[in-house]
Amino acid sequence: MRTGIAALLLAVTISGCAPSAVHISQHDPDNLRPTACEQAWTRARQSERLQKDQPDSRSQAWVQAARECPARLDEATVHAAQALATSQSGQADRRTATLRLVQAAQRLDPLAKALPAELADQAITGEDRSGFELSVLAARKTDAAWMLTLADAHTAAAQILVGQAKHDPRQGVYPTTDLLAHPDECTDPANGIQAPTPALIEMDTARALLAVGRKLNGSSGTIRTDASQNAKSRQEATSALVDMIVAHLSMAMNLGYPATSSALLQAPKR
Question: Kindly report the CA angle at 97 between 91 and 99, in degrees rounded to 5?
Fold first, then answer.
């Protein structure tokens, strides 16, 4: 299995979207208003207390926080996926998680239009490699129709993303030595956690997109796009990226990756 990207999250900081010092002016009372990030983060925190039995609503609140708070993209998307993980287990919920990923992949066109070449290559290769690896694992099992569906979703995501790219970075075939040596369970090189191999494939894909998101988001909280693109286009690109990351994280947890914050919100091993 390929070497993992750095850990899913660096240690959680108390900065991110925490309120900064406010300059008070008699002539500009708007300075006292909370930012969109602060409002979204507060709503998401409140949803954890008030909507414990409504995982979809809690997840959506964190999705909105991820869209509004680029500096805390990792943390917010993890919380969104964790909310979904509280209600998803077994084959029935695996179908739901797979459907979520398939649908998110189908809505990637706005992101494809916004990605600069280098980041497009990273996202495309991440999805294509994961699709290949899952298809290899599926070929070794007799009851892996769901895994083939999942592999197809990755491949479709790569295809949509490459539609706007200047060149096609997909290799089609990737090294399989580590994958075949550990087809059922392997160690996550980012943190030393033992996890089912398909789950780690999903986690690696999420990390690839999180890395793209960290480079893509500007300090203003919107995706850096061509000047000709309007605010709506940037919002759609951000939403597509967040939805896909949450879908990958949710799928990884459904497949057996630990859903605890202690497993997800930690610095990489040295």
Answer: 105
